[in-house]
Amino acid sequence: MPGRPTPSRRTVLRGAALTPVAGLGLAACSPGGETVDAEPTAPVDLGAESEVAKGGAKLYRDHNVVVSRDANGTLKAYSTICTHALCPINKLEGTKLICPCHGSEFDATSGEVLAAPASVPLKELPVEAKNGRVVAGPAATA
Ligand code: FES
Q: Any idea where the Rieske domain is (predicted)?
């Protein structure tokens, strides 16, 4: 029976080598469910206006939106769907957004690219403060 362990081990290893590669490819770049991993298509109430500090930014992961406020109190909002390969950006350090897929970085106050591979700025979204709430998304200010 010396032949038995070798073929089965080979089979297991081959299977193990293939599965993660396919899985990673899907997880890293696929937009997945487009209705989930997308910016708002209508105005959404993101939360209390006081959560966005002057000179700061807040990432709303559930809605794929980042909202920043400048020193004058003006709000700006951007989609956090990465312009490189459409991954949802899930990390905000200060006012710097970092994409988990390939490491692109964006300025949350301007949408501009700070680090490649992305080369296109984030999409700006209309935003306003309404009754102490931050509301962002298309037609929010229409
Ligand atoms: S999807 Fe490639 S860096 Fe964001």
A: 44-136
* Tens-digit pLDDT profile for residues 24-67: 334 434 444 344 579 999 999 999 999 999 999 999 999 999 99
Distance 108 CA to ligand 1 centre (A): 15
CA-to-CA dists, residue 74 to 101, 119, 129, angstroms: 30, 26, 9
Atom of ligand 1 nearest to the CA of 89: 4
Classify domain 39-136 at the CATH class level: mainly beta
Among the atoms of ligand 1, which is closest to the Cα of residue 118?
A: 3
Q: How far is the CA of 73 from the centre of ligand 1 (A)?
A: 30
Residues with CB under 6 A from ligand 1: 82, 84-85, 87, 99, 101-104, 117-118
Mean of all residue pLDDT scores within the chain: 82
**Ordered DSSP codes for 64-110:** TEEEEE-TT--EEEEE-B-TTT-PBP-EEETTEEE-TTT--EEETTT
Q: Domain residues of the chain, as ranges?
A: 39-136
